[in-house]
Every structure is written in C-alpha cells, then in structure tokens.
Amino acid sequence: MPILKREELIEDAAWTLDVPAPERSHPALRQACCLCGEDEGEPVAVGEDFDDRERRGDSFLVLHCRACGVAYLGRPSSGHVGAANEGAHTNAGALLRHRRTRTLLGRELQGRSVPARVLVIGDAAAASSFATLLSERKVAVDTLEHIDPSSTGGRIEPRGSRYDVAVVIEEAGRLEDPVEALATLGRGGCTRLVLVIDNFDARSCRVFRGRHWVGYDFPRRLFWFEPRAVRALVNRAGFELESLRTVSAPDRWTRSTHRFLRDWGAPPWLANRFAGRALGATVLASALEALATLSGAGSVLVATCRSRADEPTPVST
Amino acid sequence: MTAANGKARPPVVVLGAGLAGLTAARELRRRSVPVRVFEAGKQIAGLARSFRDEDGFVHDFGAHFITNRLAAAIGVGSRCRDVKHYGETVLLNGRYYPYPFGLMRNPRFLASALASRSMRRSAPPQSAREWYITNYGHALAEQVAIPLVESWSGAPASELATSVVPPQIDRGNTHVLRLKLASRLSGRAVANGYSREKPESAHVWHVYPEGSLATLCEHLAADLDGVIQTESPVEAILVEDGRAVGVQVKGEVIEASAVISTAPVHVLAKLVRGTDAVAHFARFRYRPLLLVNLRFHGRGLLGDVVTWTPERHLPFFRITEAPVSMPWLAPDGMTTLTVDIGSETDEPLWRMPEDQLAELCVEHLQSFIPGAKRRFISARVLRTTIAHPIYLRAYESERLQLERGLPVRGLYSIGRNGAFAHILMEDVYWRTLAQMRQLVTELSGATSTRAQAPAPAVVM
Ligand SMILES: Cc1cc2nc3c(=O)[nH]c(=O)nc-3n(C[C@H](O)[C@H](O)[C@H](O)COP(=O)(O)OP(=O)(O)OC[C@H]3O[C@@H](n4cnc5c(N)ncnc54)[C@H](O)[C@@H]3O)c2cc1C
Ligand SMILES: [Zn+2]
Q1: What CATH number does the domain containing B327 carry?
Q2: Residue B302 domain-assigned (yes or no)
Q3: CB B314 within 8 A of CB B364
Q4: Of B62, B20, B79, nearest in space to A22 by CA
Q5: How many CB pairs under 8 A join A and B?
Q6: CB-CB: which of A22, A75, A211 is closest to B222?
Q7: How far apart, in whole angstroms, are the C-alpha atoms of residue B291 and residue B304?
Q8: B425: in domain
Q9: Which of A133, A147, B67, B184 has the smallest number of CB atoms closer than 10 Å to its CB?
C-alpha cells in the first residue's frame, strides 16, 4: 500500500514530537441548544475573556441554532466551571440607571396587582439597583446573587420562602439548563416572572457578533437568546409570555466598541473614548441604540410572564 | 448503544488516525457510540503531523496554517499563538507580484482580466483551461493560472475538470479586500480563501499551536483512551448484502456496525471485499509531492510567505517560508524554505537522492535569492504520494457521485483524501462532524434521506 511508505519514512527519520501533555475536553458540559438539544449550530463567533488578563488567550466558540434562535457556547474549556461565577459582567446596574427603563421595568413588575414578595436574582449591582427601585414602591424584596450553574444542577432554590414574583437579570444564559431552572421557580410558587436578558438579535449584537459583543462575557455564559427563543424558553418552563419588549442599553455599543478597539490594538487615547461614560461616545451610542430600539432591535430584552400554574410544568429533556 | 434486536452493537470502525479519523471517533464517542480506530502508521495525525529536529527547526508534514475557529472548536485555543502575517506572491520573470491584486500591476494581465469581464459567455466551461481563459482572460490564464494548475496536478489543464478551481475563489474582490484590510488593521493573519464550509470574516485568523501542529491531533486523541491502535493497517473492508459489516486487521476479522475510511479512495477501492460497487475509484489519482525543506541563514528571503511560480523551467511551483509567518519554527537568524516539487513516482526526480535534490533547488533559488548558496545550511526531504487529488475530467462524474456518498450502506469515505477533495483542515473538521451526525441518525434507526452527508453548500 503506498500509504505505508510514508510511515516507513517517518521511522527512518526518527522524528520526535515536542508537545506538552494534552488537556482533556471538559466532559460535564453539554454543547447543544438548550431548547431543542441539537448541536448542529453554525459557528458565529470566536472570542476571548476580554476582562481577564490571566485567562486571555483561551478562545471560545459560539454556535447558533438557527431553528430556535439560541446561541450556545461550544466546547467550553475546562476553566469554564470555575469561571462561571467569578465577576459576571452583566452591567444591569447601568441598564437601570436609565430613567425610562426603570419606569418600564417597575411597571412590568407591578402588573395589575402589587406583588407581595419579590425575589431578584442577578449580580450584586443589578440586585441592589432593583431592590432600591422596588423598595421605593414599598415592595418586599429578597435578592439572590447568582446561581451556581453547576453545583446546584442549574436549579434556582429560593431558600424555602414563597415568592410571588421573580426577576431574573441576565442569569438565564449562565445556567446549564435554563428551562429547568425557570420551571423550578414556577413550581416554587412564583406566579410572575420578569426576565431581563441580552438580546442576541439586537442591532448592537449584530454589529459585534463575530467577537467583541459585550453580551458574550466569555466564558461565564452558556446561552444567548433571540426574542423568539425567549418566548420558547419561558413557554417550555411553564410560563405564559405577557409582554416582550426590547429596552435601550447604549453601553452595549460603547463597551463592545471598546473591546474591539483594544483587541485590534488601537491607541489607548482612542479606545478610552469608549470606556466609562465619555460624553461623545455615549451620545453616539445612545443615538444608535435609540434607533435600534425603535425598530425593536434594542440591546436588552424584558419578558414579563405569568405562570401556567394549573397546567403540569413541562421539564426539559 | 444497542441494536434494534437488543444485542450490543459492534463498534464503528475508523480507518486512519489523521484529523478526520480522530474527529469522527471523538464525535461518535461523545454520542455514546462505541468506536475503534485503526491507524496504519506508527504515529497518529497523518498529513497534520509535525516534528522538531535536533537543531530547533519545526517541520510540518504538510499543513502549516489552521484557524482560531478550528482551534477553539477542538479545544486548543489556549495553546495557540496568533499568526501575525500571511501573504502570497507570484514570481514571474524575476518579479514578485502580490497575489491576487498585485498581478493587475502588469498591464497585460489587467487588460486580459478586464476583457474577460466584458466577454459574452456562451456555454459553461468544460475544462479547467476553459474556466481560466473565460474568467481571467488569455494572458493571465496562459502565463499564470494554467502553468500553476498543471504543475500542481501533473496533468494538462484541458484534461482537468472545472472543479479543480476552489469555489471560494469566487467570493469576490470586495470580500478579499475587506479581509486584507482587517488583517492589516488587526495585525493578525486573517484567513482568506482558506475555508469553503464556513464564512470567512475579520475574526477568523491563522494560529499555530504551541509545540507543533501535531498538538491538534494529540488533543483529539487524548479523549480516545484505548480506542486507537497504531501500526494496524486495515487490510480489508468486508461488505455483505451491500452493507459494510466489518474489517480485517492483522488477519483478524472485526465486526463493525459501520466503517469510516479516511484512506485515499483509490486505496479504499482495493480494500473493499464482497462488492465491486466502489472498484471504479481505483483509477482516481493523487499527485505525489516532494517537499524539500531547505534551511538557510537569514529570513525573509522571498517576496512573501508563500511564493507561487508558473515558470516552467523551474522544477518547483511553490515555495513556503513559514518562519516569516511563524518565527518560532526556526532558530533566530535562520529560516526554512519548503520547496514543493510535483513529480510522478516513476520520474527521475522522485528517486533523486536528498543531497542532489537540495543542490538542484538551491541552484535554481540562487537566481532570485541573492547568496542562496552561501546561506544554505542543510536539507531534509519529505515525500508523499497523496498530496492532493487530481481532478481529471475522465472521472469527474464518478467524483460527483462520491460527493453524494458511497453506494455501500454503512461505509463512509471522509477526510481530505477519503472525499477526494482539496480541502484544508477546518473544512475536514466541519464536514466530518456533519457526517457523523448523519451516521448516528442512521445507526439509531431513524429514516435517513441521504446515503451520506452531501457536499455541504458553500457559505459565502
Ligand atoms: C503539502 C500540503 C500542505 C497543506 N497545507 C495545509 C495548511 O496549511 N492548512 C490546512 O488546514 N491544511 C493543509 N493541508 C491539508 C491537511 O493536511 C489535510 O486536510 C488534513 O491533514 C487531512 O486529514 P485526513 O485525516 O483527512 O487525512 P490524513 O491526514 O491523510 O489521514 C489519513 C490517515 O489514514 C491512515 N491510513 C491510510 N490507509 C489506512 C489503512 N488501510 N488502515 C489504517 N489507516 C490507514 C494514514 O496513515 C493516515 O494517518 C495540506 C496538505 C498538504 C499535502
Ligand atoms: Zn435549537
């Protein structure tokens, strides 16, 4: 067989390989769409952990399930599990600084009757902003800072209390099984759910989707959702969607631009124009985001849902 | 996994532990399908093998360039370095023309290209020769494209099918310009014309694994404990009632629920027993290649990383100076030039001793590398009989059939040589994943619409 000849050649040359011990892939994490379970997504992004200098260099792949509108992290590195809880950068705090958004969320939350107990799940900044917002409205609030996506199997366990409303800020994408986690909330008695989540179909996402979109937050998130996927997600978790709107978050533009410029080695004076709250960049980002939001492609999705408590809660397979 | 009758299902057998075989095996294992890999050689990695010699030079067997997307997909992203620069030139009459746009600096080529644009096209081109003349015009086709494809293939362009032209060549000038600009601005070697399966963008660039390219396959193999058997060529693939049922290795028959071959199709044709449905692939030909690795003092000796030369008086058609892209492949102040010589195995060049080949190359290089003889250190020659498929019109219809799948159930021919396709590693990877999904569907008894995953559409 001709092919064997090559092997003989190699033997003759006595070549050696200089390769460090290979790492194994992480076996525990599935790499598939959390709605349909399929793993035939198209690769749409390769990114890095832009916020962590130590881990920079590891690269992460995002695959997009066109059927469901879900994007998922492909083949997470073994560092993922440890990293998932460290410094998630939702910047929901910044989102809530916008007066219009606050009003809107407050309205969504209150619904027709004043809720008795509210559980806010999100990072520290988000949770405390929300707690303040709600206490202004005389609502009792508990906060839960992050859910461990792996040690609790991705379930939300609200410390034995009964909550009427759960506000889940940017957490759904961090859970290994978001459907099951939200269903747990419903089973725990939450009759209303408000989901605040980055919009994978936002204009800001479309522009930076290949790598620098701030919503990726590699490697701390596992899933990203388009509006239709949010609809399917809450539905599968036993909730009925009452409203789904996109709200404006201009920081998604500035922070993504900042990443892009830093990553491409732009001079610091230029990159820093997009860091923090530099006036020019903020004005430009706000204009772009306002246009996007007008056409329904704002950066953040807010979904208000009501539990279908009477029906048996479906659980993901 | 169990068969429909409740009995434990025999494993899927994979021939070859190159990128395709290892990707297939890992994917099947991930889906809980039992699998065994038999590799003919002593080492895994096939054409993606590399080694570092005692003087600190890294030699890649064939491939040099992969992408960050492939590295991330396989899980070796953290162990790769960015490649900062990649470029190709064409050396003609002692002048370098950056590829592709630099060729337009030559007024004859520019006029030829413009004339071809305005020409009325009658019938679709039947051969590679016609394709190049129609699309590039006479001057560019006759002086550059046709001589190159002929040295590459070892056959006249009039006998080559149009499929020899990679489909990604048609992605358009703006696409190429955009990627080149992104490369310049980002300081990374943005992949351009590398992949036909997945879109190319500013965010997909070349990287190189620490250690050597073999890291990719080593990593895949790490998930395949006890699955790979080296020095175990598959001697026969057994087919009963039109279905692959097992293989023979070292005289022993091993039952299989499916057989995946990554061997060249002309080898596969000779391995299959119990049917002659694939016998016609025996006439498919691959181009043998001599890769003469020459070490020199100095660096940046050529116009760019890859230099193509259509000059017919030169024995080679391509020279790659990989250390210009990847400085770590050679010690400081030195470089390696890989000179590609196409030669049939019965030609004198093929049998020429290593030192004579080196001398021949250096002699010719002297005409455009000043002081080549003085700079030359030493050489090492690699030979492969299966460098790339030759797209002859004589068997083009059979090749198209192969794209649609083999006429034997449970038998797959995948990878670069298995698919008889001039595809690079990332495409091998994505195609293999898609094919394994299809196989798993078939094994789990679901009705399948296709015998084998078809050639995927080109994503523009
Ligand atoms: C000169 C050259 C340059 C290239 N440059 C690049 C590049 O820069 N970038 C890039 O991405 N790609 C490049 N490629 C392509 C790349 O190397 C291949 O696409 C890829 O390595 C093919 O992998 P494979 O598994 O399909 O085949 P192979 O690597 O050929 O693996 C097949 C395996 O099957 C084994 N085998 C054969 N017969 C049997 C049998 N009967 N039983 C058991 N085992 C058997 C062989 O020993 C071999 O290990 C290049 C290729 C060449 C030749
Ligand atoms: Zn899906």
Answers
A1: 3.90.660.20
A2: yes
A3: yes
A4: B79
A5: 122
A6: A22
A7: 18
A8: yes
A9: B184
Any chain A CB within 8 A of the CB of B385? yes
Which pTM was predicted? 0.90
**Touching check for B185 and chain A: CB below 8 Å?**
yes
Rounded to 10 deg, the angle between the B146-153 and B128-136 helix axes is 150
Q: Are residues B306 and B445 in the same domain?
A: no
Together in a domain, B323 and B348: yes
Does ligand 1 come within 6 angstroms of the Cβ of B20? yes
Domains of chain A: 91-308 (3.40.50.150)
Q: How many angstroms does the Cα of residue A189 sit away from the middle of ligand 2? A: 28
DSSP letter for B409, please. Answer: B
Residues B20 and B61 in one domain: no
Which tokens go with B314?
């030169």
Distance from the alpha carbon of residue B47 to the mean position of ligand 1, in angstroms: 3
Which residue does chain A place closest to B435, by CA atoms?
Answer: A40
Ligand 1 within 6 A of CB of B129? no
Mode of pairing for the β-strands spanning A165-169 and A117-122: parallel
Whether A17 sits inside 8 A of B383 (CB atoms) is no
Planar angle of CA B445, B255, B405, nearest 5 degrees: 55
**pLDDT tens digits for chain B (460 residues)?**
555 555 678 999 999 999 999 999 999 999 999 999 999 999 999 999 887 888 888 888 778 899 999 999 998 988 899 999 999 999 999 999 999 899 999 999 999 888 887 776 778 999 999 999 999 999 999 999 999 999 999 999 999 999 999 877 777 889 999 999 999 999 999 999 999 999 999 999 999 998 888 899 999 999 898 999 999 999 999 999 999 999 999 999 999 999 999 999 999 999 999 999 999 999 999 999 999 999 999 999 999 999 999 999 999 999 999 999 999 999 999 999 999 999 999 999 999 999 999 999 999 999 999 999 999 999 999 999 999 999 999 999 999 999 999 999 999 999 999 999 999 999 999 999 999 999 999 998 854 443 444 333 333 2
Interface check for B43 against chain A (CB to CB < 8 A): the answer is yes
Residue owning the nearest CA to atom 37 of ligand 1? B263
B positions 189-248 inside 8 Å of A (CB): 198, 201-204, 210-212, 214-215, 218-219, 221-223, 233
Q: How many whole angstroms separate alpha carbon B226 and alpha carbon B249?
A: 16
Please answer yes or no on whether B73 and A61 come within 8 Å at the CB atom.
yes
Same domain, B68 and B34: no
User: Of B227, B262, B427, which is best to mutate to test ligand 1, by the most ligand atoms within 8 angstroms of its C-beta?
Assistant: B262
